[in-house]
Amino acid sequence: MSDGGRAYRHGEPAWVDLTTTDDSRALAFYSALFGWRGDREPIGGGAHYTTCLLGAEPVAGITASVPRHGARGWTTYFAVDEIDASVALARRLGARVLSGIVHYKDAGRAVAVEDPQGAVFGLFEAGPRLGITVLNRPGALCWNELDTPEPAQALDFYCPLFDYDVREVSSATGGQYSIFTVDGIPAAGMVALEDDWPTVLPARWLSYFAVTDLADATGRLRELGGSLALGPLTSRYAESSIVRDPFRNVFCLSRLIDPLRRDPLISDADL
Predict the structure, then answer these.
(1) What is the pLDDT of residues 53-111, one digit of tens each?
(2) Which residues 6+ apart lie within 8 Å of 216 measured at CB?
(3) Residues with Cβ < 8 Å from 95, sequence gap 6 or more?
(4) Looking at residue 2, what is its pLDDT?
(5) Of 165, 73, 156, 77, which is closest to residue 116 (Cα–Cα)?
(6) I need a surface site. Which of 73, 112, 223, 246 has the fewest CB within 10 A?
(7) Which residue, 162, 186, 182, 147, is CA-closest to 95?
């Protein structure tokens, strides 16, 4: 890999985790849905963190600890080169920093942030662990998307924070869709919430997980106690549905057509 072994460039989503009310039941749900297994470890104060593995590859985390930032559900963590500088810049751009910077000795440093529209995300400076090691495989993360009622303001925040360039395409519903790129490589997306969306989705970052067959995965999700919130929606890149787990946490299932994310273990020379 290039960049001294770094898997992710500054501004690329590098990790996702779920804070929920019952980590054991949540792991059972996602294991049945995606084939994950969990590696549970103490993180202090009686709390535990479960690293979810697809085969031997880390793909997500689950915790039942009370979140320092007061938000539950799926959180997207963005790789940053220097977390202290990124926190300071986020504040200058109007963000609210929701937690202190936490040092995980086996992973790196992370902090929770709320953007000016209220969407919560994380900043992650990699240490021993670089983040998710496989993307786009069924059961693994394949995309992260900001759904916001204020796309112009979001651009003013995220572009300077992560040095994004923006490519405009059409969304699955025919509206405008922004693809954030880092060095020309797609990193994440942004869509403006439509009139009938706010009751389903307040401003938030959504995590998309790849599946082989969307109808089959949605049916399995329902059998496991989850529910369909919106979809299916089809674009040139994927057929996707917004769904809820049994604890009402929102995420997406996606049958990929033309994946946008690069493999995190591909070097620049291979691109």
Answers:
(1) 999 999 999 998 665 555 679 999 999 999 999 999 999 999 999 988 888 777 789 99
(2) none
(3) 113, 114, 115, 116, 157
(4) 33
(5) 156
(6) 223
(7) 162
pTM here?
Answer: 0.91
Residue 159 identity (one-letter amino acid): C
CB neighbours of 174 closer than 8 A, spacing ≥ 6?
Answer: none
Q: How far is CA 219 from CA 2, 73, 121, 139, 256, in A?
A: 41, 22, 29, 15, 18
Q: Which tokens sit at 193?
A: 């919430």
CATH fold, domain 3-126, is 2,3-Dihydroxybiphenyl 1,2-Dioxygenase; domain 1 (3.10.180)
> Which of 205, 214, 207, 193 is CA-nearest to residue 257?
214
Where are the alpha helices (H) located in 63-205, listed in sequence order? 83-92, 151-162
**All CATH 3.10.180.10 domain ranges in the chain, comma separated:** 3-126, 141-256
Question: What separation in angstroms does the CA of 232 have from each of 80, 235, 255, 266?
Answer: 33, 10, 10, 31
pLDDT in tens, 172-229: 666 789 999 999 999 999 998 765 554 555 789 999 999 999 999 999 999 999 999 9
Six-digit token string for 54: 């697809």
